[in-house]
Amino acid sequence: MLQKLLPITGCLIFISCKHILATGGCQSNTNQVQICAPVSSLSALPGDSGDFFSQLNGRAGVRGKAGPKGEKGIRGPPGPRTENENECNCNEELERLRNEIRQFTALVNVNEYNCSEELESLRNEIRQVNADGCPSVIFNFSRLNQITDYVRYRHYVPQLNSATICMWVHTSDFTDSSLFSYATRSGHANEILIILRNSRRISFFLENKRVKDFTFSSMMNQWAHLCVWFSTRTSQLGVYINGNNLGSFPYTGGYVRGGGSLILGQDQDQFDAGDLQASQAFSGQISSPIIWPRVLTASEISDVTHRCICPRDYAITMTLDKVELHGTAGYRME
Ligand SMILES: [Ca+2]
Q1: What's the gap in Å between 280 CA and the centre of ligand 1?
Q2: What distance in angstroms lies between residue 34's CA and the mean position of ligand 1's atoms?
Q3: Class of CATH domain 133-332
């Protein structure tokens, strides 16, 4: 005989059983016959009582007994759903959940966007709170063509993966005048070198390489504010003159090594203020040299330049208590 089992995706499996157990289950030693067809068409198979298939197709619940006269009868519970109905309801439920997830995801994105703005706003506020008047002292280099006048930083210079170096400069001498020279023990005499070439051009050296020359309006006989920056993270460097951005440029070098010797007013050709040349001496004034271990924003550069507001997270300030004055190099406080 054929024993009917549950339909599987539009197919019905019939098992021919030799023995029917008291529980209605089948023993082993059975042969399976699989018939694939739309469920509705299977209900018309020969020999079927129709009762089983009517359940598959969904049968209305048994209507309850009629109530007292004048009252409506109570409808019985609904019959079992067909697989097609379940599939239909699942799809609706799935689509509803998908829509909920889409809305949630959109909400999360909006929140993330707002968080980014809020975070940046708070960072700016913190920078403002941390900002202060820029440490200030004016170093004076009065003599041309000499090898004895320079200002040396006495403390340890850390490794710099990114940096912004700012200072005020006033000069009338633009013949290879070295403003800022940082040499390392490893033989990199020009680990950082900022040198004026003439009244409209500076050269910027990093890791012993001349990485970029910048030209600008003449700074002859007037105070000019200079900021150079580099970043190994973005592989970019750039210069600001008087708060004006001269642009950013590709930079393929690595970080600046720590532990070197840093001087103002001369160009080291060896570590520890070695092998200075008279032709590269700076003559004029340098004020408020500061190094930050990061790239300052254009807004921060503007604050430093025009409002004398300096973020406090600098790595180096060359104030009087941190430097040695050599030769006739002098200073005055503003
Ligand atoms: Ca030199």
Answers
A1: 7
A2: 93
A3: mainly beta
Ligand 1 centroid vs 15 CA: distance in angstroms?
Answer: 98
Query: Rounded to the nearest whole angstrom, what is the distance from the C-alpha of residue 276 to the centroid of ligand 1?
Result: 6
Dump pLDDT digits (tens) for 75-100.
545 555 555 556 667 788 888 888 88
Tokens 């820029």 sit on residue: 134
Nearest to 314 by CA among 162, 198, 211: 162
Distance 323 CA to ligand 1 centre (A): 21
Average pLDDT over residues 108-115: 64
Domain residue spans of the chain: 2-56, 83-130, 133-332
Ligand 1 centroid from CA 120, angstroms: 43
Per-position DSSP letters for 168-226, written without gaps between them: EEEES--SSEEEEEEE-TTS-TTSEEEEEEETTEEEEEETTEEEEEEE-S--TTS-EEE
Mean pLDDT across the chain, nearest whole number? 77
* Helix, strand or coil, per DSSP, at residue 166: strand
Asked if the model's pLDDT at residue 64 lies above 50, the reply is no
Average of per-residue pLDDT across 266-280: 93
Neighbours of 185 (CB within 10 A): 13
Q: What does the alpha-carbon distance between residue 291 and residue 101 come to, in Å, rounded to a whole number? A: 49
Neighbours of 299 (CB within 10 A): 11
CA 39–ligand 1 middle distance (angstroms): 93
The CA–CA distances, whole Å, from 1 to 6, 8, 17, 50, 272 equal 16, 20, 6, 16, 104
CA 182 to CA 168: how far, in whole Å?
A: 18
Of 300, 262, 275, which Cα lies nearest the Cα of 160? Answer: 262
* pLDDT tens for each residue of 2-30: 344 444 334 333 333 333 333 333 333 33
